[in-house]
Q: What sequence folds into this?
């Protein structure tokens, strides 16, 4: 073992830096032991005690820097000295200055950033209400993505927001577009004059992309959270949202989207719409036309219809719109491909309202439509793993996520189910949504493609045609490549539907027998 | 509705809590977004969350805020002045010839760690109560020695904090509130009693400090009618690149400069005075204890304010880390296990040689300097990870868990931000951010001494226990 010393005369480093450098020097592979220190009497004493004394060290003065290395060979000592020299020069390079301040509480972040105006709360539901309250107290609008928040908390938060003139979007609100900025799960759409208030995230996304496709745009898209129109909550955010859009100069037409509200809430919402000075289109998925028309609102039975009515009210020339009518010859063609046993539709959805819309389309023609989101308990799925006749599954429902991320992010559960359904000889059509946009999977179609191709081949070998309908919810402005998603579907011989409305109708029509 | 129309007219400027990809999506759209470093409050413990929620009740909140305002006012307005030096037996309340004060919360001999035992046996020999450390250990175990925390005697003690009757103490008087704080003298570095060393060289040094160093300082200060303004001097030292816990170069220079004219006027020999100057010059640490007494003096004035959640003491005995809170008066300690200190070490020592965090020196962080003022001391950023950004980060982060800033003592690099002042138990439990402490590392065995320096944090349990006690007390 060799001990070598390198003395740098009149070179000062403070003791803390030298301790740090010594620690690093001792981690160098070639080094058995190393000390970097100033040549003070005390340090020289240490060198002696640990057996690193050399004549050079003995001669060093208090203002000289000593680098002493113990290593196997001369060569290794040399390499070690080089690496130690690097330590001295490396000190200032590397890391670039990241001076952004980290905040841990909403209050401190808001206090130091008075221009902040909105908080997104996406933490475990057990903690979400506390954070939302803090945000409101700091005069921030809130978008609460978290679910599993108590309904009492929701009511308290919404009342507080209402008093303060703030938006309280959620809990369980996944979609909003504010100031042309997509929040959480939303699509990149043109800025325009159609405002949306939606209690359903994917329903709002669907209408926003249809409006975009018709060449119009969205002024604001306000989410309310799925429970807002329940009796207990009383539609606080929906009512404030309609008012906000009525007051907003940019907004010319308002679209209201929800599942059918509780009767008392429906009354309040319709009363509000009745006094609204702007035209309002109402799409209550599976809702009642009469009351809505009575309130002076424009009834939409389905999503594309809602978007179409909105753009017409905003002044669109109907003759110039591509309304994307259903492809009737295609329906005839697919019907002939299916065997008499292939009677059923299986809808596998990542979007709750997309599922709801397709399910309602089927319910208009069939009685035996089952789902995990059926309002009528008789038609609720008995076993979530087993389909019954026509089955529509919303995989975003808690019972299917079970601690996994939402199916718009993690396709695995839905993918497994697709493989299972494809093997069922009573299945004629499998219809699925592929949602892109902010927040969503980077390549949702790609995740399904191998399984779709394989399932179709398998069915072919078994002597049946497996019809798959895919709908891509998105726009050409989204971060993912919209066209590419569609092309991937077409390449796998999937029927591409141009809207959720068309997807639901096609699925239904494909399995109608004997018309 | 004007707030909503304001929002519609501008773009969202978002505070994002939780899922980080939402932040990335917003940045991609060119939005301004602040992503919180969020963790579940109280580590998700429902009892702690209930306590935090209780404190949000407007009537209770108002009481706490008013109490904390008073507490930090008392910390900030405290004006600690060094008025003299004397032997502990002459000035420290409750001191007897067989009393030994130690750092941290209460602890019995059988539970003490190596450095603490080393220091105590050394002190017993120094006081002439035993002929050697073996005999001293027997005496310590016999029950004839009274052990008590420095903090319960208006004192603080660095590292083991061992303080015995004939040791000389700083006497620091609070000119605003009248209370007095004490601490013993620096033995300089590194093989010293407070680090657990106790051989003859250590005892000899203590004897010299008792017979020459202490008396000279005592007599010098008798000639100084105004005392030395420690708050002003602390502010100067911070502006000169100290953080006054681990870097004391500037503070020591200022302090000895203030003492020198009076030392020169004392009746001791030139030889003895030169010994004093040489001793002070042998280590930058001379003023280290002085700042601790200064901080103790200010924080004692803020202790015992009903309903206050401000921390007035953080101290460690090498086994446990204890805190005291203003609203829970007297000697009510909340403790958790002392933690490891992580940082560079003297050559020849390894992390496994380290004793656990020890000493009353965290009183400096409790006041707002030391680790809280890392941004004032770029020269020692190696202690905290190596970059000036890291150092600034520590100082700004401490604002998250404190009540206000101290305008009397400022940090130039942060646009003269005042020291983060008044650690709030609620905020610590809420955010999970622990006060950062930079400190020395003592060898885990008795008799060796200092082997490095670095940073450490208190155990969260101490704050959680305090929060629950506060919740029971404040109604």
A:
């Amino acid at each position: 073992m060799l001990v070598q010393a390198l003395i740098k005369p009149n070179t000062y480093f403070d003791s803390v830096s030298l301790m740090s450098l010594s620690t690093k020097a001792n981690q160098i592979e070639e080094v058995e032991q190393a000390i970097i220190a100033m040549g003070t009497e005390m340090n020289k004493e240490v060198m002696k005690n640990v057996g690193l004394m050399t004549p050079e060290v003995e001669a060093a003065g208090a203002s000289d820097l000593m680098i002493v290395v113990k290593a196997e060979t001369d060569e290794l000592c040399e390499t070690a000295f080089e690496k130690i020299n690097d330590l001295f020069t490396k000190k200032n390079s590397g890391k670039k200055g990241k001076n952004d301040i980290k905040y841990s509480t909403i209050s401190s972040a808001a206090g130091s950033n008075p221009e902040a105006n909105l908080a997104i709360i996406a933490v475990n539901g057990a903690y979400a209400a506390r954070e939302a309250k803090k945000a409101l107290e700091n005069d921030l609008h809130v978008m609460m993505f978290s679910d599993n928040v108590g309904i009492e908390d929701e009511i308290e938060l919404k009342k507080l927001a209402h008093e303060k003139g703030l938006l309280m979007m959620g809990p369980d609100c996944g979609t909003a577009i504010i100031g042309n900025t997509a929040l959480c799960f939303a699509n990149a759409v043109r800025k325009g004059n159609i405002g949306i208030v939606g209690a359903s995230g994917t329903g709002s996304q669907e209408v926003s992309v249809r409006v975009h496709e018709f060449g119009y745009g969205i002024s604001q898209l306000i989410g309310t959270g799925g429970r807002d129109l329940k009796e207990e909550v009383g539609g606080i955010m929906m009512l404030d949202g309609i008012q906000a859009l009525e007051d907003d100069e940019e907004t010319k037409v308002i679209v209201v989207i929800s599942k059918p509200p509780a009767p008392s809430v429906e009354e309040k919402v319709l009363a509000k719409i009745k006094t609204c000075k702007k035209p309002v289109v109402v799409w209550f998925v599976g809702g009642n036309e009469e009351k809505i028309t009575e309130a002076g609102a424009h009834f939409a039975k389905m999503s594309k219809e809602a978007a179409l009515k909105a753009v017409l009210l905003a002044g669109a020339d109907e003759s110039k719109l591509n309304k994307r009518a259903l492809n009737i010859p295609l329906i005839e063609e697919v019907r002939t491909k299916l065997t008499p046993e292939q009677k059923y539709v299986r809808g596998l959805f990542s979007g709750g309202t997309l599922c709801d819309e397709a399910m309602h389309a089927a319910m208009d023609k069939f009685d035996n439509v089952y789902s995990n989101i059926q309002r009528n308990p008789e038609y609720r799925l008995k076993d979530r793993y087993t389909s019954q006749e026509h089955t529509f599954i919303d995989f975003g429902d808690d019972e299917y996520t079970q601690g996994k991320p939402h199916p718009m992010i993690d396709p695995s559960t839905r993918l497994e189910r697709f493989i299972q359904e494809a093997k069922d000889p009573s299945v004629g059509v499998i219809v699925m949504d592929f949602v892109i946009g902010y927040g969503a999977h980077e390549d949702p179609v790609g995740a399904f493609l191998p399984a779709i191709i394989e399932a179709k081949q398998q069915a072919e070998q078994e002597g049946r045609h497996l019809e798959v309908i895919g709908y891509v919810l998105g726009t050409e402005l989204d971060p993912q490549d919209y066209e590419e998603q569609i092309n991937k579907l077409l390449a796998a011989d999937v029927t591409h539907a141009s809207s959720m409305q068309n997807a639901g109708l096609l699925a239904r029509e494909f399995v109608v027998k004997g018309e | 509705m004007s707030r909503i129309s304001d929002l519609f007219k501008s773009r969202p400027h978002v505070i994002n809590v939780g899922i980080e990809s939402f932040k990335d999506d917003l940045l991609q759209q060119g939005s301004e977004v602040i992503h919180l470093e969020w963790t579940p409050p109280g580590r998700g413990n429902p009892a702690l969350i209930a306590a935090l929620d209780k404190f949000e009740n407007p009537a209770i909140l108002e009481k706490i805020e008013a109490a904390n305002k008073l507490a930090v006012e008392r910390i900030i307005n405290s004006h600690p002045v060094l008025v003299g030096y004397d032997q502990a037996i002459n000035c420290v309340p409750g001191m007897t010839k067989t009393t030994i004060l130690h750092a941290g919360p209460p602890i019995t001999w059988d539970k003490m760690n190596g450095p603490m035992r080393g220091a105590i046996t050394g002190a017993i020999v120094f006081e002439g109560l035993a002929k050697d450390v073996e005999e001293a250990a027997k005496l310590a175990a016999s029950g004839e020695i009274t052990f008590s925390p420095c903090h319960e005697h208006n004192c603080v003690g660095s590292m083991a904090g061992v303080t015995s009757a004939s040791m000389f103490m700083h006497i620091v008087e609070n000119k605003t509130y009248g209370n007095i704080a004490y601490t013993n003298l620096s033995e300089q570095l590194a093989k010293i009693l407070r680090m657990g060393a106790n051989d003859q060289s250590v005892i000899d040094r203590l004897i010299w400090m008792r017979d020459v160093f202490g008396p000279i300082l005592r007599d010098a200060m008798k000639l100084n009618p105004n005392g030395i303004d420690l708050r002003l001097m602390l502010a100067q030292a911070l502006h000169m690149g100290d953080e006054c816990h681990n870097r004391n170069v500037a503070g020591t220079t200022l302090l000895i400069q203030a003492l020198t004219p009076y030392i020169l006027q004392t009746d001791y020999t030139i030889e003895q005075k030169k010994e004093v100057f040489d001793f002070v010059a042998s280590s930058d640490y001379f003023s280290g204890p002085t700042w601790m007494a200064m901080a103790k003096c200010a924080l004692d004035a803020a202790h015992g304010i009903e309903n206050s959640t401000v921390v007035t003491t953080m101290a460690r005995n090498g086994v446990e880390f204890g805190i005291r809170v203003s609203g829970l008066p007297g000697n009510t300690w909340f403790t958790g296990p002392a933690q490891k200190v992580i940082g560079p070490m003297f050559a020849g020592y390894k992390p496994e040689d380290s004793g656990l965090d020890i000493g009353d020196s965290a009183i400096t962080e409790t006041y707002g300097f030391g680790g809280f003022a890392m941004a004032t001391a770029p020269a020692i950023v190696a202690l905290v990870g190596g970059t000036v950004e890291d150092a600034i980060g520590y100082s700004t982060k401490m604002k998250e868990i404190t009540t206000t800033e101290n305008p009397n003592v400022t940090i130039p690099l942060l646009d003269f931000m005042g020291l983060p002042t008044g650690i709030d138990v609620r905020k610590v439990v809420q955010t999970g951010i622990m006060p950062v402490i930079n400190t020395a590392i003592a060898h885990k065995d008795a008799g060796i001494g200092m082997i490095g320096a670095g940073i450490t944090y208190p155990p969260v349990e101490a704050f959680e226990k305090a929060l629950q006690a506060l919740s029971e007390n404040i109604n």
Q: What stands out?
A: The first strand of chain B starts at residue 13 and ends at 18.
